[in-house]
Amino acid sequence: MGTNTVLANEKKCGTCEYWQGERTISRMIGNKPHSISVKSGSYPCAVQAGKTVQGIGTSPKWKKWSSI
After folding, report:
1. Angstrom distances, CA of residue 67 to CA of 7, 24, 35, 50
2. Is residue 48 part of a domain?
3. Rounded CA gap, 46 and 10, in Å?
4. What total of structural domains would you count in the chain?
5. Is residue 68, in this structure, part of any structural domain at all?
6. Would the pTM of this model clear 0.85, i.e. be above it?
């Protein structure tokens, strides 16, 4: 399975606290996260019962991932 990249300042599932897929901070600029590498595919969302979402998707229930 491949990966996608999302910017740390984007309100995408890959930067959301509730997204349960694999991700890593892939680039830092000035000691701050700049981009996130998210695993391709659909993964569960902790606040949307029974729904799976991709890391590049969006959600109205977005909350900033605590690691960024």
Report:
1. 13, 9, 12, 25
2. yes
3. 19
4. 1
5. no
6. yes
